[in-house]
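Query structure, 240 tokens:
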């Protein structure tokens, strides 16, 4: 029997999504973000890099500008207006105290109850190797959620300590525990990914809309079996 997923908590007002690259949220979580903002919740985004190494045919300085613009447009589609870029180097993010410090500072600035991040596991489905950036950022976010509340850790990072993080939700994992019904947010999830047109066109020769729709609708419908037949975005939830 397929394990059924629990609904994500709804008794919160502010969320902060922290990921490595522009497009990381659009490949999985954006439909859930649209659902949350429709309900009047506040969601902000923090990108650790500007995605400058993500387009083989475009030199990094130009790629960074394009990808930042695409991410802001993508966020706007799902009701997010606050998007920050920390400026770490794309492709070579290192897990360690400098990264934890920057992420703790971001959490203190935004003061979220829910923090969302990307899968830190070594692989998907056992054999699809995860990228170093994803692994480093996901793990650092889980640690920084605690760091942000300790006034003696990174006291020079700015902002008052924030102990208000109640959960960290990891998207894109093979072992989710919770889900969000994205029936009403699914179309905007597709359009949000489609805003990354330069990135998508560098990845595939196919039609960008067909590519985005196939992925986002496919992921959501695949998870419906575990969530009462409803299209879903899934997370592994870590209470704090």
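Result returned for the query:
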């Amino acid at each position: 029997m397929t394990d059924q997923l629990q609904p994500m908590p709804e008794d919160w007002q502010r969320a902060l999504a922290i990921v490595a690259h522009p497009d990381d949220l659009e490949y999985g979580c954006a439909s859930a973000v649209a659902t949350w903002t429709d309900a009047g919740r506040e969601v902000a985004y923090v990108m650790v890099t500007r995605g400058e190494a993500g387009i083989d045919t475009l030199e990094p300085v130009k790629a960074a500008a394009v990808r930042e613009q695409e991410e802001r447009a993508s966020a706007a589609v799902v009701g997010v207006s606050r998007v920050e870029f920390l400026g770490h180097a794309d492709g070579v993010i290192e897990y360690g105290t400098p990264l934890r410090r920057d992420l703790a500072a971001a959490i203190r600035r935004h003061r979220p109850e829910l923090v969302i991040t990307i899968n830190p596991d070594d692989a998907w489905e056992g054999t699809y190797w995860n990228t170093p950036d994803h692994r480093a950022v996901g793990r650092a976010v889980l640690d920084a959620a605690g760091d942000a509340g300790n006034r003696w850790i990174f006291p020079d990072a700015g902002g008052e300590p924030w102990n208000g993080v109640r959960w960290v939700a990891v998207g894109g994992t093979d072992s989710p525990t919770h889900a969000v019904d994205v029936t009403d947010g699914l179309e905007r999830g597709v359009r949000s990914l489609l805003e990354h047109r330069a990135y998508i066109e560098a990845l595939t020769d196919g039609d960008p809309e067909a590519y985005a729709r196939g992925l986002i609708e496919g992921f959501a419908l695949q998870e419906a079996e575990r969530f009462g037949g409803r299209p879903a975005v899934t997370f592994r939830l870590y209470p704090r």
